[in-house]
Amino acid sequence: MATKARLNVFQIWNMCFGFFGIQIGFGLQNANTSRIFQSLGVEVNHLAILWIAAPATGLLVQPIIGYLSDKTWGRLGRRRPYFLWGAILTSAALVVMPNAPVLWIAAAALWVMDASINITMEPFRAFVGDNLPDEQRASGYAMQSFFIGVGAVLASALPWMLTHWFSVSNVAEGGGVPPSVHIAFYAGAAGLLLAVLWTVFTTREYSPDQLAAFEASDPARKAAAEADAPTRTVRAYIVGGLVWTVAGLLLAAAIFAARLEKEVYVLAGMVGLFGAAQLVAGLLRRGGRTANGFSEVVEDLFRMPATMKQLAVVQFFSWFGLFAMWIYTTPAVAAFHYHAADTASRAYNDGADWVGVLFAIYNGVAALAALVIPTIARAVGRKASHALCLGLGGLGLAAFPLIRDPGLLWLPMIGVGFAWSSILSAPYSILSGALPARKMGVYMGIFNFFIVIPQLLAATILGLLLRAFFGGEAIWALVLGAGGMLAAAACVFLVRDVGEPKAAPAAVPAPEVLSKA
């Protein structure tokens, strides 16, 4: 039986190093976007709606890029062209965003940045599944988690480091984005591009023919690959599409009648668009026009393996908690722990800088946890290990309103770090063993739906919930995020892990790896 060759640690290092750069961009975005928006005059209750651009972009971009990368093969291989162009676009957006003179330009830069990060990030997930045998995938995703943690530590702490180590001001004269944030974004743009270029030029990929041979020689994976018969009839598409479309229209009417905030219309839009997508897919199938990316993505969405469906629930609750943390930690800590709401004040910017350090701490813990979690998983199983880490993250977020001294907030970030590390590795390690190799990219893109949808939900309703039930106090968004993490931990035990590592008898030579390590 033909199998993929095991790679050594340096080859896996080179293959995953680009994620260090991606996370520099992602970390700068997470830690500073709310700060930039507030510096441009946005009130805390309106932050969530501005963040919608990021997950909405991922919802559209990742399955498209996954589908295209599955079918790409050229001089740079299958996935690496997307690494390269995504990195170039992300670096450009990082330079633009802190220089935005008005809010709409900053929001547009966020949209471009997130689209570009998604162009780069999604193929990286499939890259590990393509190049590593089953028994090394957990190590590959753990290596990605390590680089994600290290990159995010640097990105999150960079404005603080520039202020406290290099005396760069963290307050802009007359208001606006501070010089420390400007310089951090410029350095991040350069670091991201260089790291991704390292992976592009030090790795090679298996050809489509080789991947097909691996799939054919693995009975379980071959069966999954051959499960291509349509599982949803034209009638089911049309009926389902009509039901969801009407439900979206009724929800929009109810929102209008109740005079709810405009961001809640996003929920109605999500429901209606899901219905419209089914209607279009049904009409295309009725006309025999199914040889297109849209039809294939929608069909694969309804044909997800059972393990993927179960993991989708876990992802939903996990990412709801994460998005609540990313949006609201800066205003929560500034208001609750530093008693400051004025973005031009020294206290607010000290609080915002400290949040950058806290984000660096949880990402640093995540990098170290990536080295420990595989050992825990071997001892208690991947599911129990993931549930434990999610539980620690939930308890960490729940502790924020209980700790009054901001200097002690690093303690709950330890739990958040374990959760983040496991979220970045465990679901993909479990999922990749349940997917057909030739559809690895598109299924990884579809899996992103269950990261994006909870983010859209959080961005849509968190502001409303804070105003309606918590007096607009951002600290309670972190408690709601804690509830999401704990729910995810409970749901992990409903997942069926079918991809247990197994020994490979004979290996095909690895794709040429230009290792310089």
Envelope shape: globular
Amount of helix: over 70%
- Runs in which pLDDT lies below 50 for 5 or more consecutive residues are 503-507, 512-517
Count of runs of 4 or more consecutive helical residues: 20
- Quick check: average pLDDT? 82
Query: Quick one: how many beta strands?
Result: 2
Sequence of secondary-structure elements = EHHHHHHHHHHHHHHHHHHHHE
**Quaternary state of the chains:** single chain
The percent range for strand residues is: under 5%
Distance between the termini: 31 Å
Description:
- This protein has 20 helices and 2 strands.
- The protein is an all-alpha fold and 517 residues long.
- Helix 2 (18-39) crosses helix 7 (134-166).
- The longest helix has 35 residues, at 346-380.
- The two termini are 31 Å apart.
- Residues 503-507 and 512-517 have low confidence and may be disordered.
In short:
The protein is mainly α.
Describe this protein with a few key phrases.
two-stranded parallel ribbon; 517 residues; mainly alpha; disordered C terminus; 20 helices
Outline the fold blueprint.
Elements: E1 2-4, H1 9-16, H2 18-39, H3 47-51, H4 53-70, H5 80-96, H6 103-131, H7 134-166, H8 179-202, H9 208-217, H10 219-226, H11 234-258, H12 265-286, H13 293-302, H14 306-336, H15 346-380, H16 382-398, H17 410-432, H18 440-447, H19 449-469, H20 475-491, E2 506-508
Parallel strand pairs: 1-2
Helix pairs in contact: 2-5, 2-6, 2-7, 2-8, 2-14, 2-15, 4-6, 4-18, 4-19, 5-6, 5-8, 6-18, 7-8, 7-15, 7-17, 11-12, 12-13, 14-15, 14-17, 14-19, 14-20, 15-16, 15-17, 16-17, 16-20
